[in-house]
Amino acid sequence: MGIEIKYTNPKKLLNPATGFLQGYSYTLNPYVGCTFACSYCYVRRMPVALFRKSDWGKWVDVKQKLALDFRKEMLRAKRKGNTTIFMSSSTDPYQPIEYSEKITRTLLQVMVEEKPDFLFIQTRSPLVTRDIDLFLQMKDRIRISITIETDLEPIRKVFSPIAPPIPARLKALEKLAKSNLPIQATVSPVLPFSKEFPYRLKQMVNRVCIDDFFMGDGAGGKRTKQLGIKRIFEKHNLTQWYDSSTYLKVVDEFTKAFAKESIFISKDGFMP
Ligand code: SF4
């Protein structure tokens, strides 16, 4: 079955940041919906997905916004005060449709001209490397975070079979690192990984964020519980990895490769 694509023209793209992201002034979501369709995606339990007839991952709304309109919005926001922007909180700005629609790239082009105080880019997609030319023009005020929940492809395939393969994400991280851009590897949500994982990441990044289902789903683990993610762990005999204290063991493992001050836990890893 194909993907249902809708084109929308929202009045604004910058929305006040709340809850988990209240350290930011705005969130910026170029799309609604996400065709990476991760099983554990907490957005599945949010009204935007719950009130939709189609399943999460089967639809995407493309927020068309002329560059001129977004420029005006950015100027207005800058006049009002601080512009710290999180892109994106409920979609992946580099999901497959971005290859053709280039909404994220258009927004970045505007932000190169009208620079925000800080921009955090959160993605799982290697497509992010396409925009290195733009990132370099605002490298002193951005951080690019690539989610790598595990280094084990069989595990990735169990939990997020449509999301980009791990080797491609590692390659993207390496490319961004070689461009000397501020980057972060985000191990979120923590999934079973090999002993070598922290060392592999350390070859590319100096900063890592560790988050889990209990701290990071925006509802203290309730959304993940409602999604029945525990059953996937049980089915694959991995229940020891599904516990609110597991992240502490994960931090211990990462401390073998990273300095303590380079390891950020949950929310702290996403702040401006
Ligand atoms: S990539 Fe992010 S937004 Fe997209 S389905 Fe996965 S967790 Fe959800």
Automatic annotation (TrEMBL):
Gene3D superfamilies: 3.80.30.30. It holds the Pfam family Radical_SAM. One of its GO terms (molecular function) is iron-sulfur cluster binding. The keyword Acetylation does not apply. CDD domains: Radical_SAM (cd01335). It comes from the Bacteria. Keywords: Iron, Iron-sulfur, Metal-binding. Residues 29-186 form the Radical SAM core domain. This is Radical SAM protein.
